[in-house]
Structures are given as C-alpha cells and as structure tokens.
Write the structure tokens for this entry.
Amino acid sequence: MLAVVGPTATGKSALAIALAQALGGEIVACDSTAVYRRFDIGTDKVPPEQQGGVPHHLVDVVDPIEAYSAAQYARDALTAIEAIVGRGRVPILAGGTGFYFRALTRGLFPGPGRDESLRARLVGTASRRGVEWLHRMLARVDQASARRIQARDLTRIVRALEVYLLTGTTLTAHFERTVSPLAGYDVVAIALRIAPELTAERVARRVDQQFARGVVQEVRDILASGVPATAHPFTGLVYRQVLEMLHGVRDEAATRALIAQENRRYARRQLIWFRKEPNLHWLSTPGEHATTIEAARAVLRDEGVFQ
C-alpha cells in the first residue's frame, strides 16, 4: 500500500488523488478530525466534487459526541485497506495525523489503562522532589525510555513508570513486542514538506477561505443541533478558536490571526513527528505541483509500484 503524509497545507490530498487516479487507487484518510461527521469546513475535507472520482474512506464515520481512539482507527483502517485490496485496487493512506499513521504502520502496544491513584502518587513525588528525580527513577528501571524521554517531560515519564509498575515490564519491552496491523503489507510512504514561508502563505489563505465558506455558521449550526461545546472535535484547530470568538474572547480579525499562527505551530510539530518515522521518501514541493507528482511517480517506479 501507499501513503502520502506530512504537515498541514502541503498538498497531501491533491497528490494522493493524482496517484489514485494513475494507479486505480482508493484513499484512506489518516486524519483524527475528518472522522467526525458535520465538522467539514474547519477540517478541510475534500468535497466530493473535488475528489476526482476517487473513493475516500474513514471520513464522516463517527458522531461528534463519540470517542474515537488511535487503536480504533488502526482497526477501521485495516478493514478498509483489506476491502480495497480485495477489489483489486490500491489503498493510499493520506493525511497528517502522525499518531494514527504510527498506530497503523507500527502498531500500539496493548498496555495497561490509566491508574489515577498511581499517577497521583507519581505526580506528587515529582512535586516534592522534582521531575528530574522521577526521570532518574525511570532511568534505573528503563534506560532506553529515559534516553528517549526528556528529563522534564512529566506526562511521558509518569506513563513510562506507570506501565512498568503495573506490569513489571518496561515500556521499551512493550514496544519491542508490538506488531503492526499491516505486518503483511509493504508500505511505500511519501512525505511532503515545504518552506516555512510557503506554509505561512498557504495557511493564511486557507483561513480566509474557511471563513468565506462559513465556518462560523457551521459551528453555530452544530451547536444548535445539540452537540455540546465540550465535544471532542471542538477541541481541534479552527473550531476551538471559533468557539472562543463566539464566547467573546476575541474578535474575528484576532481569531483569524490566531488560527493561522496555531496552524504554523502545528505544521512544525507534524514535521518533527514525521521526521522520526522510518523509511519515508521526502519531497519538498507542494503535492499539487506537476513536478511533485512526477517525483512521486519516480519514487514508486523505484519501489516497483509503477512499471
């Protein structure tokens, strides 16, 4: 199977559609917000008339008040991929949610759930002795995790210790035993990145388009339908800021500026995440450009996908 991943505003959807048209493929979205119904404009879902006749899967599959996890995504994506292959077509994963991509291509270990009492004790220890002391405690039982987790990253330190104390097995050992749901597939992954100044330009234009298309009214309509403001999709980019605007936190101009700023920051975090993923073929131009499409085809020819 193929994948087109990378930061926001790089043209992933356009490249995935072009490759699907060339290969007889179908797209499986890798987007933690596109799964929710009714949240359309702020998530930049590709409208049906712009999908080029290419089927899209894992879009609009969950009601806004439902919980949806990376583990559930991995199961649903695998089901969609196997159905696509069963039809003799090519599955193409497309999106920028790095954790979903990792859950599907590398797997999630079936670790223990949260233990609030244990977490409270660990956080209390960090408050009394300092988070660095907790990090040294982790290093004594799981050196590999301690090297991977920064000394002041309390959340991840607590989780690593929680797993060890509850199971007697280190987080590192759990990761080593993890099996990808796609163990039987060769994944050819193309990652897009563009210059920061181009990201800023494209993000600003996208925000203007979202407001012109009526994202504010979309939020009002969703709220009026009975979906509470606490629903998970409202915590995402665009929707969180529009909600704050409707509550009088800031005016529209400031809201637009903030959304653009937060998108730029998100793009940087996505780039950092995907740089840690192995075996990606990086291209440094927007996905809709003819040169990018041809470069992607060249990668696929080298991998034996195109003849």
User: Anything to note?
Assistant: The longest strand covers residues 90-95.
